[in-house]
Structure formats: C-alpha cells, structure tokens
Amino acid sequence: MVHISRRTVLTSALAAGAGAALGPRLATAHAAQGVPTLVPAGHGPVDLHWLEGGSPAALAAGTTWGVPWPRGAFAPDQQLALTTAAGDPVPVQTWPTGWWPDGSVKWTAHAVSADAPRAESYRLAAGRPSAPGKRLTVRETPGEIVVDTGTVQVVFARNGSQVVRAIRRGGQDVARNGRLVVSRQDVPDTDRGGSVRHESFAGAVDRVTVEQSGPVRAVVKVEGRHRKGQRAWLPFVLRFYLYAGSDGVRVVHTFVFDGDENRDFITGIGVTFSVPMRGASYDRHVRFAGADGGVLSEAVRSVTGLRRDPGAAVRAAQVEGRALPDPATWDQRVTSRLHWVPEWGDYSLSQLTAHGFEIRKRTGPGHSWIRVDGGTRAAGLGYVGTPSGGLAFGMRDFWQLHPTELEVTGAATDEAEATVWLWSPRAEAMDLRFYHDGLGQDSYPEQLDALEITYEDYEPEFGTPYGVARTTELMFWALAATPTADRFTELAAASATPPLLVTGPGHVHSAGVFGSWAPADRSTPARAAIEDNLDRMHAYYVDQVDQRSWYGFWDHGDVMHEYDGDRHQWRYDVGGYAWDNSELSTDLWLWYHYLRTGDATAFRLAEAMTRHTGEVDQYHLGTWKGLGTRHGVMHWGDSAKQVRISNASYRRFYYFLTADERVGDTLHELVDSDRTFLVLDPGRKINGGGPFDPDPSALGVGQTTDWGALAGAWLTEWERNGDPIARTKLLNGARSIAALPNHWVQGSVRYDLADGTFTTPAGPSVSIGSLSSVFGLIEVMTELIDLVDEPEVEAAWVEFCRLYNGTAAEQVAATGASWGSLNLRQSYSRATAYAAARLDDPALARRAWTEFRTGHAGYPAGHSFETVRVEPPLVLNAVDEGRFSTNASAQYGLAAIQCLALVGEELS
C-alpha cells in the first residue's frame, strides 16, 4: 500500500477571495506571517469541453466557469490564454476565486462571450489572453450605469422603480422600463369566503454596484425592496451578466420572504419590460418555445388563413417573421379589408404544473381569452417584436419551477409589455402557512412524544418561512430582428440549460481539491462492482425526481428522505421523513459523484440541489439567519434549526466550479453563523426548556456536528480571502479540540464566540453520537489537515477515525471509556480508511473494507441496487421502486468514494 502524504490525494483549500484585486492583500498577510515568497512552479495546458458535449449553437449571453490548480502552480496575477483545440485564440477574462495558504492561486474563474469562436473543446494555458473584437465598457455617472457590450447598451438606474431604463441596439430602444412587480392578497384562494384585498408592489432600487467591468464580462448587482406606500418588503438582489459582443443579458433574481404567511399570499412575482412596437400590426410577431423544440409563431394581425389570400410571398414572409411586402402588391381584396381582421395584442403561456402548459390570447383587456394550444413542458422562452428588432425573454427551469408564465400584453399598441412571471397570477395564491394546527403539542414533553411517531420535531411558531429565499435565472436577448424558428429554438435551449465549460475529472483530481476522491475506476472486478452500484443508485434518484414530480417553486432541487413500501410512495406527508433538506450530506454525495464521473446529468442534479438547499432550506433574514431547517413535510417546517443544514460544505463545490456570485453570497452569510447559538438553544427540549441565558464565552456548541458545519464556512471564507476571523476561528477550533482530554469525543465542552476556542470545565469524559461526523466533518478535516502543519490536530483526528469503529477495549484504552453501541458503521468505514492511509496500516485498511461490506445502517454486500416496475392500479403512475433510503444512499456513496480513493489497493 502506498502512503498518502498530506500534500497529495487529500489536498484541498483554504485562503481566497472573489477577484484579482484581493491578491495583494493575501500577499501582504503572508509576508506578515513569515510565509516564504511564492516561486510558481507552473502548469501545463488544461483541456476543456462543454458539459453536455458537442458545441452548443447558442450561449446564455456567455459562460463562466472555474478551474482548479495544484498548490504552488501559479501566482494570483498569472495570465491565462484560451484557444480552441485547433489553436484559434478565444478572448477570455480570468480572475482568481480561491487561494492556497502559500499564496498560490487555487481556483480561477473564466468568462467567454457568445460572440467568441465556438468549438467542441478548448485549451487553457499560461499566456497572454486575446482581446475581444468588441470590447465591453462600463460608464458610471451619479444617476445611472451604462454597460456597452459593443452590440447592445444596457442603462441601469441607480434608484427608483426602474431597474433597467433601456436596452438599446443600433441606436434605438429594444426594451425599456425594466422593473419588478409583485402582487399579494390577504386571504388564500383555498379559504376565500368574504372580501379579498389585493395590492400591487413595485421593486424599488436601493443600491447598484458594478462587481465586474470587463473586458469580456460585466456584472451589475442591484439591491432593493418591493414597495407600495409605507410598506417595503420582499428584499431582492438582482445580478445582470453582460458579455462582450453579445446581445444577451443573463439575470439572476433572488428574493427573500419577509412577510406574514398568515396574511401575505403572493399572487404574482414578475420581471417586466416595455417593448416599443414599430410598424404595422401585421409585422409584429410573438413567439413561444414549447416542448421538444417546438415553436409557436404568430403575428398580432395575421394575414394567413383568411377567406381571401394576400399572396404566397406575403404569407411566407409573415410566418418566417420577415417584413411583409408593400400592401399595394397584395391581393387588394385583403388589403382593403385589413381593418376587419382582429389584432391579437395579448398572449400568455402558463405552466401551472410540471406536466402541462397552455397558450391563450386575446384582442385586449375587457375581452375573453381564447385557447391557442398546449403541451407538456415548455422550454420557457418568449419573444415580442418586429422585423426591425424585439425582445426574447425567458426563464431557466421554467416547468420545473412552476407555476410560471410568459406574458405579452399591448402588442397592438405602441408599446408592448413582456413579463416573465416567476409565480404566475393565473395560479392559486402562494400559501406558506404551516400544514397542521399543532395537534395539541403545546409542551416539550408532548412534542418529544410526537417525535417518536411521525419523526417531526414540531414547536409552535417555528414553522415559519420568514427569511427563506428563492433564486431564479432569467434570460433576455435584444434581437436585431424576429428570429427564425431554428434560431429561436437555439436560444430556448441556451436559456433552459445554459452551456457550461468544464475540465475533466482527471485534472480536477490532480489539482488536489475537495479532499479524498478519485476518478471512477473499473480496473478490477471488485472496483467495477462498486462503481456499478454507485451508478445505479445515482440513476435511481435522477429517475425518481421525474417519476415523483419533485418539482415546483419551493421544492425543485430537493429529494425525499424515506420510502413507504406499503403505499409505494415516498413519505411526503409523514413528519420528518419527507423532504431531505441535506440530511446526512446528500449534497456532498451528489457533488462527489459528479467530480469523479464528469457526468452532465450528475452536475445538473447537484446544481439544482445547491440552488434549493442554499436558499429555501436556509434562513437569510431574521433571528435565525444563518441556520437551516431539519428535514420535514415543509422545507422550513421543522423546529430544529441547525447549522448542519445551512452547511457551507454543501455549496462550495458549485461556487468554485461556476464562480456563481449568488452562491458566494450565501457562503459569506455563514461566516458568523456561530452567533446563532446566542439566540436559540439547540438542546431546549432535552434540558427542559429552562431560562436561556447564553454566555458568549461558554456556548453549548458541539465540537463535531456543529463545529464541522461552522468549519466548512470558515474554510471557504479563508480560501476566498475573505474575513480574517474565519482563519482564526477555524485554526483555533481545531487546535483547541485537539487539546481537549478526549478531543472530538470529549464531553462537557464550552465554546468561546470571540475566538472560536473550545474548553472543558471537567476532566476526561466521553460523549459521542453517530451523527457526529456525517454532516461534512470528515470531509472538512480531510482538507484542513492537508492544508496546515498541525501534528497535534492530525494525531487527534486520526485517533478519532481509528476508534469510531474500533473495539470497546481500544476505546477504553485511549479515552477511558467505551463509546457505546454506535450507529452508521458503514458510513464511518471511510474514517477507518482515512486512519489507515495516514498510519500506513494495511490491516486497518482491510478493516475498513470489512466495515463497508458489512453495511451496518447502510447497504451491505449483496444489497440489490436494481429496481422493479410498479404499474397502475397499484400506483397512480408507473414508477420504479428500489430498496433505497436517502440517508443510506448518501452515506454509502460517500463511504464508497472515499474508501476507493484512500485504500482501494486493499479491495479484493
């Protein structure tokens, strides 16, 4: 067996920032700490390809991606050049997003525009980047910000209800008055009995920040609230992404719910633009993307299908979206009667469920809507405009995030309105109230007793959505002409699944990031058998998402926790067995599966989970800001509010692989999440709920589950070169835990909020639970130990890993007491494997594989990863059923992946 040093397989990160400007700050800090001046070792070219393969026909304005580098390879100011595989230069913008502790760059982010040369593969290497043909510029004045891509100009207002004053192309406004709209009512549709009060709110800009200004990519951040009169609520953050030469504008829209769920029932959330309509109504066009590449192409005043024929050339031009010939050349029986042909000025495509959309139109307000057509799952792109230009507008995950809608109104007038409805006004009002009345659980004893039957940890007033968020990605194109059907389909595909450049598992692994994992390897029958199990297990969850319709505005991205074989149904309605909410690190498993396979489906599943769990399952405002909510029937419903759920370790993969600024925001929010222990006692029900008077210097923060989640946030913040307190608390915590009599299993510990240190007022004792390390602690410690030279920390952690599945005699000899009958032993086989690798102990490595195969609280050898088909009438819809629990799946996946990487040589 080959010994794995601290500088190889386990290498990961710590130290970073969000842009090149932070490089000098890091260098200064290193100089002050006596770190030797970095002498970069360099690195060869890195190959890139599109995640979904091939070469996409269109990009979502452009694309941004991340690339990791081994420790010591490059200084933060290293220039990087991009070429196609054939050697053609590609304009690229580069900036660092993560650093190693020695000051070398660990992660770089890169951006290319839709205007750049397109190829199936590219090469990134040290060198001078080529400049874009159309240079992007940003001009700031006291009243506005103007971003010019060289093709379009976008004018942002610094205040007021206009977020975007205009999008211009060729000297004329394609769209203007871009704004946010929200409506509410004071009673839910399902309980409506008497009068209903409706209100509409407009987004008001409070702050605009230019976060990046070219040469290839610009990012403009807009913050504000929705206002009417004296009320300001639903805070929002918008990020606009513009790329050199591109006519596309990508928008990432986030809002936080800060209303009263018992009286604020949202009836619509939208982003709308005014679109000037020039020319005759027969030259005004509406387009909607349907399912499977379908396109609805219509004109405001149609000249096809009439009783009299204007001529083949006229009909063909209108269908194709071209300007019609002079009406004097038409059959005059049509020309003289055009005023009798209705003008259809309003159109709507509504996707109220994941399985069906409907398109309707009307001539205008005050008249009936008529049904146009329908289908299954719309791609989520619309267009309104003329042959001289118009606006394409759309939403990613359109049908997955239902109820949604694309709407065009007023197209027969001088100015149309194009709206992307994130929550469609045609749907029932959003109802965020808790799903039951408490069932008489008025005391802690009653709540604990109820926990024994439904596994739901209920407490009055804790099932609140106040502070949860949702992020949605939108796309707008300022087009020079009405697009052809083929081009519109290309844009719809780019909006629905934005193309992303990636590097393969081999390079990511060689860079030494994200701890213990290795690319999928089927070189032996034993390895191949485990790889097959991992693939089958992952594919099962991919299929379940669709078969069980795990979609919807608040649900998309999560999976269910446990299965009910009697009903052939996941336990969606049974207390704590319903939505998973990151329990036992499902997010980690999905991301590691992607890292080692490079599979596009795996990436998209993990991406959707990151968007969901980092927004919906985490509080972003209020008393519980920084905490997540334990698994349950409603994502925010359980009374257990925990840092283990708001875990930064679950989101950092996506941040570094995509440089996504919104996920970066959520990671930064967690730097001070240890302060939540001042406002909420996690053990209140166990200790009887006495007076809670926390001492900031002696908080009840656990050094395993709690600290592991906190450490993930600090690790990421340090890696990004953020708040220096992150490094201080991370290292202080690890050192002080290692200094405790029994380290990670020491009982009666106290945490000092000021500096992140642990102490114990008592002598050696043992307190350990099976959940201690299955919320990211193993993965955090794997990375931390490889980053810092802390022999005492390493020794203490390796001892913990060796002893968890050890004998009682071994535990007594090391800590003075048996650790008891612990659960999740298959999960902890990866801890044994880690100890084996560190100690270079083949016998311990073989023990790890025995533990893995035994499958205690997981999937033992011989467990079937196959599924069976269950058909109606036993079920509502035909489904595949397997012997899976999400807890077991996540932990089996992590154990298998890490054991293969650490002690794969001992697998037989």
UniProtKB/TrEMBL annotation:
Residue span(s) of domain PcRGLX/YetA-like C-terminal alpha/alpha toroid: 498-907
Domain PcRGLX/YetA-like N-terminal RIFT barrel residue range list: 46-126
Key words of the record: Signal
Pfam families for this protein: PcRGLX_1st, PcRGLX_2nd, PcRGLX_3rd
Domain spans labelled PcRGLX/YetA-like central beta-sandwich: 137-492
UniProt-listed InterPro entries: PcRGLX/YetA-like, PcRGLX/YetA_2nd, PcRGLX/YetA_3rd, PcRGLX_1st, TAT_signal
Residues annotated as signal peptide: 1-31
PANTHER family with a match to the protein in the record: CONCANAVALIN A-LIKE LECTIN/GLUCANASE, TAT PATHWAY SIGNAL SEQUENCE DOMAIN PROTEIN
Protein name: Tat pathway signal sequence domain protein
